[in-house]
From TrEMBL, chain A:
GO terms for cellular component: plasma membrane. This is Cytochrome B. GO terms for biological process: respiratory electron transport chain. Belongs to the HupC/HyaC/HydC family. It is a multi-pass membrane protein. PANTHER family: CYTOCHROME YDHU-RELATED, NI/FE-HYDROGENASE 1 B-TYPE CYTOCHROME SUBUNIT. The chain crosses the membrane at residues 50-67, 120-141, 153-177. It comes from Prosthecochloris aestuarii. GO terms for molecular function: electron transfer activity; heme binding; iron ion binding. Coiled coil: none annotated. InterPro entries: Cyt_b561_bac/Ni-Hgenase (IPR011577), Di-haem_cyt_TM (IPR016174), Hydrogenase_cytochrome (IPR051542), Ni-dep_Hydgase_cyt-B (IPR000516). Keywords: Cell membrane, Electron transport, Heme, Iron, Membrane, Metal-binding, Transmembrane, Transmembrane helix, Transport. Residues 7-195 form the Cytochrome b561 bacterial/Ni-hydrogenase domain. The keyword Heme applies.
Automatic annotation (TrEMBL), chain B:
The lineage of its organism: Bacteria, Pseudomonadati, Chlorobiota, Chlorobiia, Chlorobiales. This is Tetrathionate reductase family octaheme c-type cytochrome. It comes from Prosthecochloris aestuarii. InterPro entries: Multihaem_cyt_sf, Multiheme_Cytochr_ET, Octahem_Cyt_c. Gene3D superfamilies: Flavocytochrome C3, Chain A (1.10.1130.10). Keywords: Membrane, Signal, Transmembrane, Transmembrane helix. The keyword Membrane applies. GO terms for molecular function: oxidoreductase activity.
Length: 201, 535
């Protein structure tokens, strides 16, 4: 066992802020969707719209940080992408039950396994931006219609925004569960709080 | 010089913080007769004499106001006629309604709300100038009342109506104290339409004579209330009072134009503009699809019960002694009358909502109706996608009324008249009342009648509540909200795509189930391994 410093202070701050914002957006979004009453529609609506800007802000901030620090390299995969992802998938499907070692060792220069890399990359580059675009199109519907958008698009915009939100809930559930698959059940979460993680030698 | 500078600075600061243009304080300055008129009618020789009848007063008025009666002749208030774009002749004189059904055949009773004298039957002379009633609108004393069955005349000698004394009017006193119409003058007919206070409209009743702000924020007579009266919005020129339920404006696209509305009459936007919500931009996004009234008149009949149901088919029941029956509810409102049938009343009524583009479709007495369902006497036109249409609130008055089962048309029963005339309220025979009424109107009647359920839409514009009492988001943006039954458009918070909801549920359930099964298997396999390790 050894301890490695995996997550810089900014990364941890960004991660937990983003977690808080996404969680709040999901709760207020579902309330605005009419599924339950918690804050009240109007309050939920205001929080949702304010936090949407928060999400945009943190994504921009993160991009800035990753680019300027060069840490974006953590997300690049060298070699055969599919093969490496399949190795990680095989580990979760089979190896993990046989107490096999993780196929990719964590260290300071490589803290993410290939499946994490592709998932987080898709989330940050595709999923969240798409959700943000549809959210903003939903909010600025009147302005877009004034610019010539077909007014009937409100329904597909709203429906896709909802669908993406449900998929995001699926991601959150699996993401939270996956944090328990580290060296110990809580070692991943501890790492995201303190920055230090115990990893296999 | 220095003083002038200080004054200028003070003035510009004041201008900067000047009350918003919506302040209506200037509407009604403290009462000073010189501020109101250049003429004191009590000083006119023509009016310093006793008058026997209303038309005599009118003749005196016309000596100076030479063109007034001609102006009146051109108004709906006089003709009770409105020629619609589709060629239908409507107006009170012609329209079917589900309150007292039809004016024709019942003139002397109905025309107690006509601004004329002597419209007692179909031979009334609509070109007569002396038959214009100046006083009903210009009485400044509050003592001028038309006798309910006097065909537009007030009582000229002390009499009674319905067992209550009805005093004679002092015509000279009224004539010397004429004024611009105030809420009493308009209200005497418009607050009491349908036969009594609050019956017909739901948003117009005598509570508007001295309303609290929560009843009508514009007309409030409370301290610091705006104290606006009817004619502040229904600004009249040449006796033409704007504002029509036959040809309403469903959407004002012009905005600020008070006090010279370029689209007749004054709308909410004439004073409040097209982006009225200053601190809450999202609300302005609603203006193109929602009438202001929809959110800002949360309920109607806020103080006094309005009639919601009138079933003529139940009329004509007598008690064991053969006497007419009047049954009242705990609030003292008639719920059954032998003459009129069954009523239902309601206060604080939530309006019904429809898309409305300003076109009101009316059934006439010549329209063939479908008696297999509820007949809409009128219905608002409009669609979600149409740029003219907005969601409007309506009072919907429902009831049952007689129709010709063979010709499938509404009929005009004679209700009011002496015993033996065939009038229903004296003889209580529907067939005779309908025969008499239709003969009088020169219309065909097959001889076979029944009652059909009808509904009638009354667009709502009055009793605007203070903004703190307007509707909240979730009143509409929710399942089972106020707009639950208004189909054809996507409403956030109300609508969902069933396929996406199922898919979403599937994603959530399967990811939950997946992690639970995976976690369990990890647990079991690690248990087994530790077990193996021990053995």
């Amino acid at each position: 066992m050894r301890k490695v410093y995996l997550y810089a202070r900014f990364q941890r701050f960004w991660h937990w802020m983003q977690a808080f914002i996404i969680f709040s957006l999901l709760v207020t979004g579902l309330e605005v969707h009419g599924l339950f009453e918690l804050l009240g529609y109007e309050a939920a609506f205001h929080v949702h719209n304010a936090f949407a800007w928060g999400l945009v802000l943190f994504i921009v901030l993160a991009f800035f940080w990753y680019i300027t620090t060069g840490d974006f390299r953590q997300y690049l995969i060298e070699g055969n992408l599919v093969e490496k992802i399949m190795m990680q998938v095989r580990y979760y499907m089979i190896g993990i039950f046989k107490n096999e070692p993780h196929p990719f060792k964590k260290n300071e220069i490589s803290r993410l396994n290939p499946l994490q890399r592709i998932t987080y990359l898709m989330l940050t580059l595709v999923g969240l931006p798409l959700q943000i675009i549809f959210g903003f199109a939903y909010y600025y519907y009147n302005e877009l219609v004034a610019l010539g958008m077909n007014p009937d698009w409100i329904e597909p915009i709203a429906v896709i925004h909802t669908l993406l939100a449900y998929m995001l809930i699926g991601f959150v559930i699996m993401h939270v569960y996956m944090t328990t698959t580290g060296h110990t059940v809580t070692s991943n979460i501890k790492a995201m709080i303190t920055g230090w993680e115990e990893v296999e030698e | 010089m220095k003083k002038l500078l200080v004054l200028l600075i003070c003035l510009s600061v004041y201008m900067f913080y000047m009350p918003s243009p919506l302040s209506a304080r200037s509407f009604h300055l403290s009462v000073d007769s010189l501020m109101i008129s250049t003429a004191d009618h009590s000083k006119f020789e023509q009016l310093k004499r006793p008058f026997e009848t209303g038309p005599e007063v009118t003749e005196a008025c016309l000596e100076c106001h030479t063109e007034a009666a001609k102006q009146i002749h051109q108004t709906k208030h006089w003709s009770w006629e409105v020629l619609m774009k589709d060629g239908k002749m409507l107006g009170k004189q012609h329209v079917v309604n589900n309150f007292c059904i039809s004016v024709e055949g019942n003139e002397p009773r109905c025309t107690s709300c006509h601004i004329g004298y002597g419209w007692k039957d179909r031979n009334f002379d609509f070109t007569s100038q002396r038959n214009v009633d100046c006083l009903v609108c210009h009485d400044g004393t509050g003592t001028y009342k038309k006798y309910p069955s006097g065909a537009g005349h007030p009582a000229y000698s002390d009499t009674s109506f319905g067992g209550k004394p009805f005093p004679a009017v002092d015509l000279a006193y009224v004539a010397q104290n004429v004024a611009n119409p105030n809420r009493h003058n308009c209200g005497i007919c418009h607050f009491e339409g349908g036969g009594g206070d609050a019956v017909k409209h739901g948003d117009l009743d005598n509570s508007l004579i001295e309303p609290m702000a929560h009843v009508d924020v514009h007309m409030s007579t409370e301290k610091d209330g705006l104290n606006m009266t009817c004619t502040d919005c229904h600004q009249t020129e040449g006796h033409q009072v704007p504002g029509s339920r036959y040809e309403p404006h469903a959407r004002d696209v012009h905005g600020f134009d008070y006090p010279l509305p370029d689209d007749y009459p004054t709308t909410c936007s004439s004073c409040h503009g097209l982006e009225p919500h200053k601190d809450y931009a999202k609300l302005n996004d609603h203006v193109d699809k929602l009438a202001c009234q929809t959110c800002h008149i949360p309920t109607i009949a806020r103080e006094r019960p309005t009639k919601m149901w009138w079933d003529w088919s139940k009329a004509g029941q007598f008690n064991e002694q053969g006497k007419q029956i009047t049954r009242k509810d705990s609030a003292g409102l008639a719920v059954y009358m032998t003459k009129k049938g069954e009523f239902e009343w309601a206060t604080d009524v939530v309006p019904e909502y429809r898309w409305f583009n300003g076109e009101m479709n009316y059934v006439t007495f010549l329209t063939e109706i479908d008696d297999s369902a509820v007949v809409e006497i009128n219905h608002p036109d409009g669609e979600p996608g149409d740029s003219l249409s907005r969601i409007w609130p309506f009072k919907v008055h429902r009831g049952k009324q007689p129709y010709d089962t063979v010709l499938k048309r509404f009929v005009k029963p004679t209700l009011y008249g002496p015993k033996g005339s065939g009038a229903y309220w004296s003889d209580f025979d529907w067939d005779r009342a309908i025969t008499t009424g239709m003969e009088y109107a020169g219309m065909e009647y097959s001889g076979s009648y029944d009652f059909v359920e009808t509904e009638m839409y009354w667009p709502i514009s009055h009793m605007v509540a203070p903004k703190t009492e307007s509707l909240g988001c979730a009143d509409c943006h929710s399942r089972n909200g106020r707009l639950q039954n208004l189909a054809g458009f996507y409403l956030p918070g109300r609508d969902a795509n069933p396929f996406v909801e199922m898919l979403g549920l599937l994603v959530i359930i399967s990811s939950l189930a997946g992690v639970l099964v995976h976690g369990y298997m990890r647990f079991v396999s690690s248990k087994r391994r530790t077990g193996e390790g021990h053995s």
